[in-house]
Predict the structure.
Amino acid sequence: MSLSTPTKAPATPRAGRPRSFDREEALDAAMHVFWRQGYEGASLTALTEAMGINRPSLYAAFGDKAGLFREAVARYGTGPGRYIRRALGQPRARQVAEMLLRGAVASATDLASPGGCLWVQGALVTSTEGEMIRTEMMALRNAGTTQIQDRLDRARREGDLPAATDVQTLALFLVSVMNGIAVQASSGRSREALNSVADYALKSWPV
Amino acid sequence: MSLSTPTKAPATPRAGRPRSFDREEALDAAMHVFWRQGYEGASLTALTEAMGINRPSLYAAFGDKAGLFREAVARYGTGPGRYIRRALGQPRARQVAEMLLRGAVASATDLASPGGCLWVQGALVTSTEGEMIRTEMMALRNAGTTQIQDRLDRARREGDLPAATDVQTLALFLVSVMNGIAVQASSGRSREALNSVADYALKSWPV
DNA sequence: CCACTTCTTTACCGATCGGTTGGATTTTAG
DNA sequence: CTAAAATCCAACCGATCGGTAAAGAAGTGG
C-alpha cells in the first residue's frame, strides 16, 4: 500500500532504475480487487489505484490484466487458500474434511478480506471476451476437486475410510459445500452460522 | 427468437404502432444472456442481438439494463427456478429438501440452458457501478433462505421434524448445497454426479 | 564523469460501454 | 382522411474500457 517502503534488493541486481513499489504488496492489493469485483469487474483504474502504481508499471511487471489475474489467483492459493494444502496433509480423512470446511468458512468470512472465495467468484461467468479466463478457472476448480478425491481415495485404500466409500461423490460433496459456503459468505452470512453448516455437513461422514 | 411471430393483441389496445416483438420471448432471451454472462458481462449489444431487437426498443419496453435484469431474475423464478416454490409446497419436510436439491441439480444441469443458477452467478460480484444490483441479489438469496427456514420451522412445530432441530442451520445447509451445486454445474459437472451429491447431502436428515 | 538500462509519468489510442436523439414508419382515434 | 401516439431504425453521445508511445527520471556499470 505504502509507496515509501524501500524496494528489497533483488537477487540479481540488473542495471537500470529499480521499481519503486513492492511487487508482492501490489499483487496482494490486486488480488483483493479481483476478489471483490471479479476479473472483468475490476477495471485497470481500480487496480492501479489500489496497487498504488500506474498502468505502464503494471504492464511492465505483470504483462497484462489476464497475467495479473493469474498471478493473483496463484497468490490466493498460497495465502487465503493455503488451508486446502494443509488440510490435504492431515493424517486422517475426517480431519481433512474438517479442515477443508472450517478453512473455507474462516477464509470466506475473514473480515479483513472481501468475503467469499476468489476461485469461485473471480470468473464464475464472463462476457465472451473473458471466456479463456473463465475456462481456466473452471479447470482450476476441477483440479482442486481431483486433489481432494485423490486424498480420499488414498484414505480408502489405507483403511481410513470404508472400502465401499464413493470417494468421487464424497469429494464433490465437500467441494460443493465449500463453494456454497463461499456464496453464502458473499451474501453476508456470519462465520458462526456457516460453521454450523460445516458441522452439519460432517454429520453423515462415513464410519 | 423469430420476428415473424405476430404480436399478441394487447389487453387494452392503445393508440400507436404496436411493438413488433413478443415481450416474453425477448425477456427469455435476455434471461439466458444474463445467465451465461452475468449482469455486467452482458453487453447491450449481446442482449439486443439475442433478443432480436434494437436498443431503443429495449429501453422502451424494459426501462434500462437494470430493469431488464430485474425482470429476467423474476422470470427465472417462475421458469427454471419454479421448482423452489413447488418444493415448499410439499407436505413433508423431507420431501421439501429432496425437491430443493433435485430441482437445483436439474435446473443447473439443463442442457438447454447456460448451466448453473442465475441467482448465484447473475451478480455474485460486480464493479462499483453494479453494487446496487449485487446488493439486490444478496437480499433475494437471503429472502429465499428465510422462506425455506420458515417452511422447516413450520414442519418442526407440526412434529414433522424433531423439536430440537436447528432449522436455521438446516435451511442454510440446504441453500449452501444448492449454491455449491450451481457452482459445480457451472464448472461442467454432470447431472448424475451432482445428483449423487444431493443424495449424500440428505443422508444426515433429522429423524 | 559518461553511456546505458530500466522504471515512471503523462498523455493518448481505437474500441466498446450504457444510453439517447430525431426522424421515418405504422398504428389507432376521431 | 387527418391528427395523435407509439414503435422502429440509424446514427450518435460522453464516458470508460484495456492497452501503449514517448519522454523524463533514477538507477548501474564502466
Chain A touches chain B through 50 residues (CB under 8 Å).
